[in-house]
């Protein structure tokens, strides 16, 4: 349920990267992690939703992390709809909200959604 605390953790099957979706009760964020970076592995964060803005938050939702075959791209699907993705090769995150602003070392081009990321998963 949107707005109920939840963490979905999904490591790549073939690389050092991990994707994590977190709903802290107020917001939903999608994180890119690099296990080689210690003690702070988070390399990017994408805003997915503010709980108060989700009209059907009282309906159960299905959260799924889907990795590409090469283990270097991952997408967040909520109820089978793509909300965000990370491309670890291009060092780029994509989300429907386009928020937060770009980061210097990852997603320097911004976080705007691009439907072409869906080709990663075909």
Characterize the structure shown.
By secondary structure, the protein is mainly β. It has one domain (6-121). 0% of the residues lie in helices and 43% in strands. The chain has strands at 6-11, 17-23, 27-34, 42-50, 63-67, 73-78, 81-87, 92-95. The chain is globular and about 35 Å long. The termini are far apart. The mean pLDDT is 94.
Record keyword descriptors for this entry.
mainly beta, 122 residues
Give Rg in angstroms: 14 Å
Low-confidence stretches: none
Q: Percentage of helical residues?
A: under 10%
How many distinct helices? 0
Number of separate domains: 1
> Cα distance, first to last residue?
28 Å
How many extended strands? 8
Briefly say what this structure is:
By secondary structure, the chain is an all-beta fold. It has no helices and eight strands.
What is the strand and helix layout of this fold?
Layout: E1 6-11, E2 17-23, E3 27-34, E4 42-50, E5 63-67, E6 73-78, E7 81-87, E8 92-95
């Amino acid at each position: 349920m949107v707005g109920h605390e939840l963490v979905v953790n999904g490591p790549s099957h073939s690389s050092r990267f991990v994707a994590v979706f977190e709903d802290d009760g107020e917001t939903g964020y999608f994180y890119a992690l690099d296990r080689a970076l210690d003690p702070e592995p988070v390399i990017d964060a994408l805003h997915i939703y503010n709980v108060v803005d989700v009209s059907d938050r009282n309906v159960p939702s299905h959260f799924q992390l889907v990795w590409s075959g090469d283990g270097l791209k991952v997408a967040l699907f909520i109820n089978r709809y793509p909300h965000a993705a990370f491309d670890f090769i291009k060092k780029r995150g994509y989300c429907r909200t386009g928020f937060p602003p770009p980061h210097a070392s990852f997603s320097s081009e911004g976080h705007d959604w691009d439907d072409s990321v869906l080709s990663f998963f075909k």
